[in-house]
Amino acid sequence: MELEPSHYPAQRAAGVARACISYRRGGPNRVLTLSNVRRARLQVRGRERGPRAGTGWIKSMKLLLQHSAPEVHFTVEGELGKNPDDADNKFYSRIKSLKEPLVAQNIPDSFGIVPPEMEPIRHLAFSACDYIIWQNSTENTWYNLAQIQDVRQVKRNDDYLEFDYTVLLHDFVSQEIIPWQMQVLWHPQHGVKVTQNSRQPK
């Protein structure tokens, strides 16, 4: 069944697929956003649904909502923006050279301001939150990162950077603000990995 691309079901399904892609391809200097949905189709297989959508640089995506995390298949046409390697390497070197572990709160602040040096930390949070969004989305949710409440760098003896984030997720459907904790590893050559995450009490 064809869906109207601008309507809620198509936009929400494409948002979950975008979250999966962003987690796999995003990082401190690359944030993937959904610009538009060009086409969407709903296939019902028993209790499973699979909208298909083409967005931005993503040629096609297939999302299968089921009892576990949504299953996403996608193909990419062209490049996903500029190659962030140089900026990623500079960020990596800067954080590795800090004498004291990085600690920050309230990104953005109550005025919506993000200090320039915190932009890569925020972008990394976007990619990591996209894992949580992808893994926890259902037909009755629509999550978005609202704010980083707290982020603390965890010193390691290997080449990875590790951050302990507490974030606030906004569910557009219920209008609920949900605290979530996540442990995030990142390396310029290996990308983002969420090693632990848990929904926190309000």
Structural features, described:
The protein is of the alpha+beta class. The chain folds into two domains: 2-76, Nuclear Transport Factor 2, Chain: A (Roll), CATH 3.10.450; 85-199, Nuclear Transport Factor 2, Chain: A. The chain has three helices and twelve strands; from the N terminus they run βαββββββαβαββββ. The protein has a five-stranded antiparallel sheet with strand order 1-2-5-6-7, covered by helices on one side. Strand 3 (44-45) and strand 4 (48-49) form a beta hairpin. The chain is globular, with a radius of gyration of 17 Å.
Please name the defining characteristics of this protein.
about 200 residues, 2 domains, globular, alpha+beta, five-stranded antiparallel β-sheet, about 35% strand
Distance between the termini: 39 Å
CATH class of the largest domain: Alpha Beta
How many β-strand stretches?
12
Which descriptor suits the 3D outline? Answer: globular
GO molecular function, one term: metalloendopeptidase inhibitor activity
GO cellular component, one term: extracellular space
Organism: Crocodylus porosus
Pfam family, one: LXN
